Automatic annotation (TrEMBL):
InterPro entries referenced in this protein's UniProt entry, alphabetically: FAD/NAD-bd_sf, FAD/NAD-binding_dom, FAD/NAD-linked_Rdtase_dimer_sf, Pyr_nuc-diS_OxRdtase, Pyr_nucl-diS_OxRdtase_dimer
SUPFAM superfamilies: FAD/NAD(P)-binding domain, FAD/NAD-linked reductases, dimerisation (C-terminal) domain
Co-factor binding comment: Binds 1 FAD per subunit.
The protein's name: Dihydrolipoyl dehydrogenase
GO molecular function: flavin adenine dinucleotide binding; NAD(P)H dehydrogenase (quinone) activity
Amino acid sequence: MEDRRCGVAVIGAGTAGLHAYEAAWNMGADTLLIEQGSGGTTCTRYGCMPSKALLAAAHAAHAARRAGGFGIRTGDIHVDGEAVMARVRALRDRFFAAVLEDYDAIPADHRLHGTACFTGPDRLVVGDTTIHADAIVIATGARPIVPESLDPVRALVHTHETIFDIETLPRSLAVLGAGPVGLELAQAFARLGVAVTLFDEDDIVGGLGDPQVNASARAALSQEVTMRLGVTVTAEAQDGRARLSWTGAEAGSESFDLILAATGRPPCLDPLALDTTGLALDDHGTPLFDHRTRRCGDSAIFVAGDAGSWRPVLHEAARGGRIAGMVAAGGEAPRVLPAFAITFTDPQLVEVGTGFADLPDGARIGEAKPADNGRAVIERTTEGLVRLYADRDGRLIGASIAAAEAEHLGHGLALAIDRGISMADFADQPWYHPTLEELLQQAARDALGED
Ligand SMILES: Cc1cc2nc3c(=O)[nH]c(=O)nc-3n(C[C@H](O)[C@H](O)[C@H](O)COP(=O)(O)OP(=O)(O)OC[C@H]3O[C@@H](n4cnc5c(N)ncnc54)[C@H](O)[C@@H]3O)c2cc1C
Ligand SMILES: NC(=O)c1ccc[n+]([C@@H]2O[C@H](COP(=O)([O-])OP(=O)(O)OC[C@H]3O[C@@H](n4cnc5c(N)ncnc54)[C@H](O)[C@@H]3O)[C@@H](O)[C@H]2O)c1
């Protein structure tokens, strides 16, 4: 067994880990980055980037199909599935290579290959090496799970880790899970001509906590994807296909070429043997940590990225990694920023700041409909709903949106919420006409009781 000492040990070289490594190193700490795989990130390999590349092709097909509504005749639209998937993989490989380059640029003696496992609060074992670290950052990410109910048809089941490797498009696809992963990929494949049915045990899509925005998103998305929500699914193999049966008011069964399991991504914590650390864990075995400093209790162990099951999105992995690395090396943590998540469907789904379930007493809600917005009417993007939340003092605290181009609305809202702006000041900003941004002004005025 070899012994090694370091200031900060970072477990996982994904987005969170790479940022943690860089931040600790920049603080002058003797930093070690431990990775069990080949490097690269979930985002580039089978997350954000290939899913957005697939959606881009899908939205292009959709735009071509709906051009007739503007008086533009395109003829029949043919989707070349092999070309679409090849482009997705080419882009994925390009983004992946860029991240690998950054990883490979880290000096070899600052990296250790292998699976890390705690043997105490300040000790890790990686293969034949025992590492004694002043501080340790857990940045081990999350992995998809496949429900046991799909065991009978396992050979036909993909997750987001394998679906981008299919060479051609299936004729039919069942997607289990209407979270962001399931929703984005269900709409992408549907727009590419695949017959898609989306199943979920719950009746919420994209994690939307606001019931009215959820209902408007469901109504919009179900025009392209068959939705079976609030159902339990069982599976059996039949003639090389997967026959799924579901419960509920409209119980039934249907055969599919392929299945995508998008039923959640629990954090990768099992191999870490966290029981040896003395950390307080939640009911799922995830360490409890301070969301500002990323520190677990009074320990010298920190959590960043999807490993913490808190805001599992890319910018939080990057920022959380930076904060964990900095604080682990003796720096100060900045403030917590508003939550911000986008699901890149059409309409896009955006949640910013305080969610509907956490609205304080006396909160006010203002609404606006794309159907009443001149620009949305011109662009034929009238689906969805915008809801803004203010606290009882009139401060803008959150928003839930289903609308075209909502990603742009969300960024402005995140800044306004972070700066603690009042709904009155927000409504009084310069809102250019005709823009979708005017939806925000309209919703703010609605919350203020103005017309
Ligand atoms: C399909 C999909 C689409 C997404 N789209 C978006 C999007 O559009 N926008 C957005 O903001 N977010 C998106 N996300 C979420 C985003 O990808 C994640 O939040 C982010 O990649 C998490 O980064 P991470 O560093 O926590 O984990 P990862 O990048 O997964 O890194 C974890 C690393 O830890 C390593 N590791 C694990 N255990 C050990 C161990 N014991 N020892 C050593 N190494 C270990 C792993 O090998 C891995 O390299 C998407 C996710 C998915 C699945
Ligand atoms: N655009 C983005 O930023 C983006 C895109 C994709 C993923 N992500 C991130 O990745 C995280 C994980 O996303 P996800 O969609 O994999 O997980 P999720 O936990 O958000 O959603 C999983 C869904 O699967 C359902 N489900 C669970 N078991 C089921 C079963 N047996 N049958 C039917 N339905 C079942 C759940 O009810 C839930 O709706 C998200 O929270 C998000 O932060 C972000």
